[in-house]
Amino acid sequence: MTFPVVGMVGGGQLARMTHEAGIPLGIRFKLLSDTPQDSAAQVVSDVVIGDYRDLETLRAFAQGCDVITFDHEHVPTAHLRVLEADGIAVRPGPDALQHAHDKGVMRAKLSEIGVPCPRHRIVTDPADVARFAAEGDGFPVVLKTVVGGYDGKGVWVVRDEDGAADPFLAGVPVLAEEKVDFVRELAANVVRSPHGQAVSYPVVESVQVNGVCDTVIAPAPDLSAELSAQAQQLALTIAAELGVVGHLAVELFETRDGRILVNELAMRPHNSGHWTQDGAMTSQFANHVRAVLDLPLGDPRPRAKWTVMANVLGGDFPDMYSAYLHCMARDPQLKIHMYGKDVKPGRKVGHVNTYGDDLADVRERARHAADYLRGTITE
Amino acid sequence: MTFPVVGMVGGGQLARMTHEAGIPLGIRFKLLSDTPQDSAAQVVSDVVIGDYRDLETLRAFAQGCDVITFDHEHVPTAHLRVLEADGIAVRPGPDALQHAHDKGVMRAKLSEIGVPCPRHRIVTDPADVARFAAEGDGFPVVLKTVVGGYDGKGVWVVRDEDGAADPFLAGVPVLAEEKVDFVRELAANVVRSPHGQAVSYPVVESVQVNGVCDTVIAPAPDLSAELSAQAQQLALTIAAELGVVGHLAVELFETRDGRILVNELAMRPHNSGHWTQDGAMTSQFANHVRAVLDLPLGDPRPRAKWTVMANVLGGDFPDMYSAYLHCMARDPQLKIHMYGKDVKPGRKVGHVNTYGDDLADVRERARHAADYLRGTITE
């Protein structure tokens, strides 16, 4: 048999779920993981323990892989260029990934290709932040370190010049953005293959709590057909223009005045696409694997009228397994996805999916299960 | 976290797919496999290579497992009793498994509890076969060795006394059964947990070619509601009466005169239930894991009007991966499930699932994909 080897860099839950989705395809899956306890390392046969920041570790890992893909966007771009020079297929490649790695590069590129973004520019110090505010509608202003942020980390909302010092302490460039007056957040998920085929999932609503994704509703309720098509087209355009291979999540703001603006990009399976595991004909993970192998993509259409995903965050209650009894007995259609992670307060340790015809019911079931698993409700 | 460890004995495709289904539950999966190349060993992290027929290997493997379950029914019953004496949860347990291990024990028990079976009795030699034939409608008669048969192996259809010698050569008891005049084969799949909860999947039609399952149609077309309910009730009764824990497949004959008779039992996930991976709310594999852990069972109802499974057998064409291009491009909804096995003529190396509203279309898509993967068609 000539089944290919997919090399996955990073052992988090995205790698874990990509492995799960790759098993039916009969492909070989090889994992580069920081530790044997990492989420994906617990369930994969062929694991190399090593540091992806070490070039020689990465090069040795890549030998024998037909393609390299990623659980996260932290691998240095220069390392990826060396792998490509070694003749390894890197998907998505460094030219695309730099836009996910550096928010400054991303904003510059999106503006260049005409994608609507919040007003933005790189700022140099708190006084420059004040100038940026004055150029527009004033404070508040959003500040982001161009690298290293996720789940609300590396992001500040500042109300005046005096409050704008912290983001500059890390010594990395800081991007200022207008604070968008949005009514909600959306996400457009697309998958693109090297030969240019692309599929687009329904646009979803992403409900954030404290800067962390809490609930995703697929499709986004009451979204106009026009905005939905516009969001899908934007994501397809970004994927094509940036040369993305694999899954691309485009996080969007829906503004009060009826526009959509791009917030963030992720070039890998994404939290806003977890609903596809149980709610779409082909999951984002299966399509990511197909894309990086340049196989024809699977049908992205929904299998249910509504699908809701709720993240399970760590709480004060460490024994989530005992909560299965109640959750499974209460809702025999509930889909639990746990990541094998130790519970720490606020840490994403799993998610649940529910689906059905009645959105209120589907939301309530997901909410109840996520809260019960976390331990914030006990009945 | 206090997530349990499920110990799986046997490294075949059923173990592989059970692991896949267990990943979302966050459970630990430990595998006892004959070789590192076995289907499941390719995709599981925690693998012990060893011979399940060796008691001490089995006992050592079971240490640290919360429950032991099985990819096949070949573990000696005496070994399982030792494990139970060691305090290990064995599910299904030896009292149930003996009925799947020995067709003579199975027939005796089913008759005792009033389950309709083909006329049968243990026969001692060819002359006794002739007497068995004369006791009923004469030849042909079906002969089966009571242990060791599967996929048509260990089964003979004999037309006279002279042709009845072979089955006795193996030196194991031989069961004679009337050759049932059936119009088709059905299968009733149920899952039962230790505390007695049970779920029943829709009754399916199983199309056999040369004694090997070829296609499964869910639900069985044109099956009367009465026979369907009777088949489901039979399977639930058998599961309860035999004390089955986990998945139970009951293979049935639908006779020309409108009755159903039990053909075979399997106490593990079964080929006739593979359609549930993509066609049911909860797959047989996920429910098997839930059952052996005594968790509440998942909803067994179908997600599509029709789901068809077609087995992919090895042919003369070894490179199935290259066939993915055509199959996936032709049918973006196709679900391929490959087992990581080397292609050998006639060997089950994978299966495909298709679903939809139009049975003729769903069957054609499954048939085409299975034939194309095998290499018997090239366009």
Automatic annotation (TrEMBL), chains A, B:
<dbReference type="InterPro" id="IPR040686">
    <property type="entry name" value="PurK_C"/>
</dbReference>
<protein>
    <recommendedName>
        <fullName>N5-carboxyaminoimidazole ribonucleotide synthase</fullName>
        <ecNumber>6.3.4.18</ecNumber>
    </recommendedName>
</protein>
<dbReference type="Pfam" id="PF02222">
    <property type="entry name" value="ATP-grasp"/>
</dbReference>
<keyword id="KW-0067">ATP-binding</keyword>
<dbReference type="InterPro" id="IPR016185">
    <property type="entry name" value="PreATP-grasp_dom_sf"/>
</dbReference>
<comment type="function">
    <text>Catalyzes the ATP-dependent conversion of 5-aminoimidazole ribonucleotide (AIR) and HCO(3)(-) to N5-carboxyaminoimidazole ribonucleotide (N5-CAIR).</text>
</comment>
<feature type="binding site">
    <location>
        <position position="185"/>
    </location>
    <ligand>
        <name>ATP</name>
    </ligand>
</feature>
<keyword id="KW-0436">Ligase</keyword>
<feature type="domain" description="ATP-grasp">
    <location>
        <begin position="107"/>
        <end position="293"/>
    </location>
</feature>
<feature type="binding site">
    <location>
        <begin position="177"/>
        <end position="180"/>
    </location>
    <ligand>
        <name>ATP</name>
    </ligand>
</feature>
<dbReference type="InterPro" id="IPR054350">
    <property type="entry name" value="PurT/PurK_preATP-grasp"/>
</dbReference>
<keyword id="KW-0658">Purine biosynthesis</keyword>
<feature type="binding site">
    <location>
        <position position="144"/>
    </location>
    <ligand>
        <name>ATP</name>
    </ligand>
</feature>
<keyword id="KW-0547">Nucleotide-binding</keyword>
<comment type="function">
    <text>Catalyzes the ATP-dependent conversion of 5-aminoimidazole ribonucleotide (AIR) and HCO(3)- to N5-carboxyaminoimidazole ribonucleotide (N5-CAIR).</text>
</comment>
<feature type="binding site">
    <location>
        <position position="103"/>
    </location>
    <ligand>
        <name>ATP</name>
    </ligand>
</feature>
<comment type="pathway">
    <text>Purine metabolism; IMP biosynthesis via de novo pathway; 5-amino-1-(5-phospho-D-ribosyl)imidazole-4-carboxylate from 5-amino-1-(5-phospho-D-ribosyl)imidazole (N5-CAIR route): step 1/2.</text>
</comment>
<dbReference type="InterPro" id="IPR003135">
    <property type="entry name" value="ATP-grasp_carboxylate-amine"/>
</dbReference>
<dbReference type="Pfam" id="PF17769">
    <property type="entry name" value="PurK_C"/>
</dbReference>
<dbReference type="InterPro" id="IPR011761">
    <property type="entry name" value="ATP-grasp"/>
</dbReference>
<dbReference type="Pfam" id="PF22660">
    <property type="entry name" value="RS_preATP-grasp-like"/>
</dbReference>
<dbReference type="InterPro" id="IPR005875">
    <property type="entry name" value="PurK"/>
</dbReference>
<comment type="similarity">
    <text>Belongs to the PurK/PurT family.</text>
</comment>
<comment type="subunit">
    <text>Homodimer.</text>
</comment>
<feature type="binding site">
    <location>
        <begin position="263"/>
        <end position="264"/>
    </location>
    <ligand>
        <name>ATP</name>
    </ligand>
</feature>
<dbReference type="InterPro" id="IPR013815">
    <property type="entry name" value="ATP_grasp_subdomain_1"/>
</dbReference>
<dbReference type="GO" id="GO:0034028">
    <property type="term" value="F:5-(carboxyamino)imidazole ribonucleotide synthase activity"/>
</dbReference>
<dbReference type="InterPro" id="IPR011054">
    <property type="entry name" value="Rudment_hybrid_motif"/>
</dbReference>
